[in-house]
Specification:
The complex is a heterodimer of chains A (338) and B (263).
Chain A (H helix, E strand, L loop, with lengths): L4 E4 L2 E2 L2 E2 L1 H17 L3 E7 L5 H6 L5 E6 L8 H15 L3 E5 L2 H14 L3 E5 L1 E4 L5 E7 L4 E7 L11 E5 L16 E4 L9 E7 L13 E5 L9 H11 L2 E4 L1 H5 L20 E5 L5 H4 L7 E6 L12 E4 L2 H18 L4
Parallel strand pairs in A: 1-4, 1-6, 4-5, 5-12, 6-11, 7-11, 14-15, 14-16, 16-17, 17-18
Antiparallel strand pairs in A: 2-3, 8-9, 9-10
Chain B lengths: L1 E5 L2 E3 L6 E2 L6 E2 L5 E3 L1 H17 L3 E7 L5 H10 L3 E5 L9 H13 L5 E5 L10 H8 L4 E10 L5 E8 L2 E8 L2 E5 L11 H9 L2 E4 L17 E7 L8 E2 L4 H14 L5
Parallel strand pairs in B: 1-6, 1-8, 6-7, 7-13, 8-12, 9-12
Antiparallel strand pairs in B: 2-5, 3-4, 9-10, 10-11
Helix pairs in contact in B: 2-5, 3-4
Classes of the chains: A alpha/beta (338), B alpha/beta (263).
Bound molecules: flavin-adenine dinucleotide (FAD) and adenosine monophosphate.
The site of flavin-adenine dinucleotide (FAD) has 28 residues of chain A, from helix 6, helix 7, strand 17 and helix 8.
Amino acid sequence: MGQGIWILAEHRGSEFRPITMELLTWGKKLSEHCGAPLAAVLLGHEIGNLEEKLGNYGVQTVYVMDHPDLAVFNLDSHKEAMTQLLKKYLPAVLLLGNSIYNRELAPALSVRLGAFLSVDCTSLELKEGGTFETVRPMVAGKVLAHAAPAVPPGGGAAPAVIVSLRPNVTPRLEPGERATPDLVQVPYEPVPLRTKVLEITQTAGDEMDVTEARVVISGGRGMKGPEHFKLLEELAKVVGGAVGASRMVVDLGWIDHHYQVGQTGKVVTPDLYIACGISGAIQHLVGMTSSKCIVAINKDPEANIFKVADYGIVGDVFEVLPHLTEELKKLLSEKSLV
Amino acid sequence: MNIIVCIKQVPDSEAQVKIASDGKALDLDQVKFVLNPYDEFAVEEAIRIKEKKGDGTVTVVSLGPPRVKDALRSALAMGADQAVLLWDPAFEGLDSHGTAVLLSRYLAGQTYDLILLGKQAIDDDMSYIGPALADLLKLPLVSVVTKLEFSPDYKTAFAQREGERGVEKIEVSLPAVLTAQKGLNEPRYASLMGIMKAKKKEIQEVNAAALGMEGSGTSDLVKSRVTKLDYPPKRPPGKIVPGDAATAAKELVRLLREEAKII
Ligand SMILES: Cc1cc2nc3c(=O)[nH]c(=O)nc-3n(C[C@H](O)[C@H](O)[C@H](O)COP(=O)(O)OP(=O)(O)OC[C@H]3O[C@@H](n4cnc5c(N)ncnc54)[C@H](O)[C@@H]3O)c2cc1C
Ligand SMILES: Nc1ncnc2c1ncn2[C@@H]1O[C@H](COP(=O)(O)O)[C@@H](O)[C@H]1O
């Protein structure tokens, strides 16, 4: 099928983002399934020798576009760069992460190439004959939709099938045998950049984003006030997780919208989600029910959140949380975690 | 300033979602429809811009079956000036790509300074149309906007949004496509007078022929095919961990480690 399975490698500075290893997991599976070589795209500027590491993951070719306009995300330069690459090399499949930036990039590529796009996929279903279907939640996760290109990719000049994957759902590929990929430096023909970032405040920095965290500790109105969110931060620190929030507390101004989980916030899929003083309104649930394990702490035994929790504690967050943090600290000092 | 807002009518977020008997579509028979919540932010913002600047028109446009007129009327009741419905039986079954292409065909013939959309429709959850329209119309895009300001001459917009590197303040010259994220504003409730007025307003209807689509059909605009809809697997019933706070916390940690094997 076609000319290869591509992943768009995500990196920050000289480090790959975790999503890259998740893309590689599916990339490798598809490459075996379709009998097509696995390749990666690296966009950036002065990115050092990041490409070398990709060989250890079974990537045979790395296409690099290095240009100052690609140093940080700009939709105009990134869609132009990807269009130039896709039109030149005609891969059969492009896998990319469903990030804020790629949510702009992927549809733009889809219209430019007239290509099938499935966004925010949680799985791929491999079919006979080297084809596959994408599986994605819709209607806020109430339904899983299986979709395929209306016209099956015929190889050759057929536009690539574009699939964006939801982060934190797929296991990350572990490096295998040492190998050196072929490196293809592709020149970038610049286009005017029509948007300009004037300033960045509240930098995302080192703080882990709720969508990337393996453990999310969320607080709701039951936390009684912003000053108590430090209880959640302490617990998050102990387990190496991130703090999340319900919309109610965001609306009350206790915490920034950046942390909100749910329909109008972020969709998270951590290994462990701990809901503290959250009632479990449907709009909150749709943002977190795909978590692997859910714990709820709420003093109301009838709270809706218990309907989706694997483990529930009926009790006062102010009594339970300090004990929980203490117990986890004890356990984790014995064993390094998560 | 002419502002166009693209809106979609969607099932209410509280609605029970049922899969139709063919297993490929949603059963929408008993569903209550609303204006997509993110589109409400877009409509509200458009009206505020117009009110602040003191001139211009706000036009809401939707592609969809006749029931979508209700959503257009909700936007008119909030204060939009005009509404346009793009519909033709030939549009049945269009996917995001086809919808974006037809919207762009309509918009290509209009004059506007700004196109606003919601960041995402809460039924298909694609967030496709905004970036796609921007590309089709060769306009710049800023998505998931939470704050919007303009230069005094309204030729440049300053949009704030949460990017991956933090909160970004982005400069873009108009015309441009912007998509609205929660936080942009608090949408108003329509006044009784607004609702009465909206009832009387005419909704302009645009069919396939008017979009130059007669005879050519829309099937080659469709890029994706839904093969099956499923309900997500049900979570097994959970356990309430008994005991006082100290006992329960201790037992929970044991369960997380030994039973769930999470830590
Ligand atoms: C269009 C729309 C979109 C929305 N999007 C979102 C979204 O993205 N995310 C979201 O979260 N919500 C969203 N909501 C809001 C949602 O409907 C709920 O209002 C919100 O989730 C409730 O937040 P909460 O659970 O923190 O507060 P509450 O519902 O007030 O619940 C507080 C809980 O804390 C418990 N509690 C109180 N004190 C204690 C204590 N000392 N110890 C233990 N428990 C205690 C109470 O028993 C209660 O269950 C949306 C709503 C709409 C209409
Ligand atoms: N059929 C439609 N007609 C007009 N605008 C639409 C339509 N579908 C989606 N939109 C707009 O595009 C945004 C994103 O929708 P989606 O790409 O479906 O997630 C919505 O919030 C609307 O503003």
